[in-house]
Amino acid sequence: MRKTFSALLLSTLVLTGCATVRDSRVNPFNWFGKARSEPIAQSSAQANPLIPQTSSIFSRKRNSNAVYNGRPVDQITDLTIERVPGGILLRATGLAARQGLYDVQLVPQNKDELPVDGVLTYRFEGVEPASQTPIGAAATREVIVARTLTDQQLAEVHTIRIEGQRNALTSSR
């Protein structure tokens, strides 16, 4: 016990002495030297340093030609349009025929999402599970999807129409 205490006391005194001598090579805070500022070589291309330029095995690659296998939801129950800075938030609530509907989307029915006679039409679709699921209560079959539209997209739009399998809801300006 006496040897351990003596070694601990001696090492404490040595390290305390190192801290008082700031420029000493024995001081562990000086082992890596002082920080220096260095200029960074600028690349000619203005790339965002926060977006990786290369892909890795962990990055998600999305196929731009992927086929969406959604089917229209059974019934549209609610359509809400909320004003947000720079446009609107279009929120639709649907009731699926069975439980388990996933990957719901508002699929544009107009070419290039341009209004036809002032009407912008979307179809509320979702992917049904591969296995049979119970029908269940209405609250368990309810799905909600949202989409933002900018003021530029809404320039010539007078009516927004959301279609389901059995009904459609519209909202006009």
Please characterize this protein's 3D structure.
The chain is of the alpha+beta class and about 170 residues long. It is built from 2 helices and 8 strands; from the N terminus they run αβββββαβββ. The strands form 2 sheets. Strands 1, 4, 5, 7 and 8 form a 5-stranded mixed β-sheet that branches. Strands 2-3-6 form a 3-stranded antiparallel β-sheet. It is elongated, with a radius of gyration of 32 Å.
Strand count, sense and closure of the main sheet? 5 strands, mixed
Q: Distance N terminus to C terminus? A: 87 Å
Tally of strands: 8
- Count of separate DSSP helical elements: 2
Order of helices and strands: HEEEEEHEEE
Average pLDDT figure: 79
The poorly predicted ranges are: 31-38
Radius of gyration: 32 Å
* Helicity range: 10-25%
Shape: elongated
The share of residues in extended strands comes to 25-35%
SSE class: alpha+beta
In terms of quaternary structure, the protein is: single chain
Please outline the helices and strands:
Layout: H1 2-20, E1 71-72, E2 75-84, E3 87-95, E4 102-108, E5 119-127, H2 138-141, E6 142-150, E7 159-163, E8 168-172
Parallel strand pairs: 5-7
Antiparallel strand pairs: 1-5, 2-3, 3-6, 4-5, 7-8
Task: Give descriptors for this structure.
single chain; 173 residues; alpha+beta; five-stranded mixed sheet; three-stranded antiparallel sheet; 8 strands; 13% helix
Overview in brief:
By secondary structure, this protein is α+β, with helices and mostly antiparallel strands. The chain has two helices and eight strands, in the order αβββββαβββ. Residues 31-38 have low confidence and may be disordered.
